[in-house]
Amino acid sequence: MEEILNSLQTVDLRYVLSTVILVLIVIIIRMGIHHSLFQGTDLSVESRRKWAGTIRDILLVIFIIGIGFIWASKIQAFAVSLLAIALALVLATKEIITCFGGSIVRMLTKTYTLGDRIEIGGIRGNVLDHNALTTTILEIGPGQTSHQYTGRAMVFPNSWIFTYVLINESYTKKFRLHIITVPLSTDDNWKLAEQLLLKAGREEAAPYIEDARTYLKKLEGKLWLDAPSVEPRVTIQLPEPGRIHLLLRVPCPTQYPSRLEQAILKKFLKDFPFAPRFAFAGPQLIPIIDPDN
């Protein structure tokens, strides 16, 4: 700001005189041409009016170009000072500007709205509020597979949209496909476990299957996605030697996956006989050895 004031205070008198002379020259030329047009008898009134407007515009352009040549050095100094101030303001408010940008991206792309369950930057929960700078969510945890509220409200800046991957678990709004993971040992009867888990999933998800199928089918045209099958299914994973994971996929209401998950797990645990891992022998635990191995 001081540089701008100094540049204005040190204006050379030559620039002022040159500007005054340019103004006088333009005025004299305009008056002379205007007088000549109205003194002539060969041109119609309409033609005179058109010529007067054209000459006025030409003289205005010449005046602006002349001012630019006269004040070029001062304008350049002023522009450099103004640019320096603008850069300083941008650097000082970078985070705020980025937050505004994230808010604009959220509004244009509809990344998430109030009530959506999202995960970003290692935090997960339901969106309670969002404004131009921040988003507030009600945390869900602990961990990434829990569906219980912790009672804590967490606030993150909207600039995180440019920094972290954002997961919207409520993208399909009313219904979603929920994954339940059941870890087993290779000593367990995984075939029986697969049957019991699938049976429990079908029984507990039965009230939602038809509604979920109809709803997801309607979203095909709106969200440009292929509607997945909503029939409960179990897939098998081998995460490490000696371990088996059964993954049950079932349809459920988007906001209440925990209720369905708990009902399925309780029914499965009630019916499935896990293989014993240890037997008691005095004060120590001794692993059971299979005589067939």
Summed up:
With 293 residues, the protein is of the alpha+beta class. Helices cover 52% and strands 23% of the residues.
The helix tally amounts to 8
C-alpha geometry: elongated
Q: Give the SSE order as H and E letters.
A: HHHHHEEEEHEEHEEHEE
Radius of gyration: 38 Å
Low-confidence parts, pLDDT < 50 over ≥5 residues?
278-293
Structural class: alpha+beta
Average pLDDT over all residues: 79
Looking at the structure, the CATH topology of the largest domain is Alpha-Beta Plaits
CATH-derived architecture of the largest domain: 2-Layer Sandwich
Strand numbers in spatial order across the main sheet: 4-3-2-1-5
- The total count of strands amounts to 10
Strand content: 15-25%
Structure description:
This protein has 293 residues and is an alpha+beta fold. The protein folds into three domains: 2-92, no CATH class; 109-168, SH3 type barrels; 175-276, Alpha-Beta Plaits (2-Layer Sandwich). Helix content is 52%, strand content 23%. It has eight helices and ten strands. It has helices at residues 2-9, 13-39, 45-70, 72-92, 94-109, 160-163, 190-223, 257-271; strands at 117-120, 123-130, 134-141, 148-157, 167-168, 175-185, 233-237, 243-253, 278-281, 284-287. The strands form three sheets. A five-stranded antiparallel beta sheet has the order 4-3-2-1-5. A three-stranded antiparallel beta sheet has the order 6-8-7. Strands 9-10 form a two-stranded antiparallel ribbon. Helix 1 (2-9) runs antiparallel to helix 4 and helix 7 packs antiparallel against helix 8 (257-271). The longest helix is centred in the last third of the chain and has 34 residues, at 190-223. The chain is elongated and about 115 Å long.
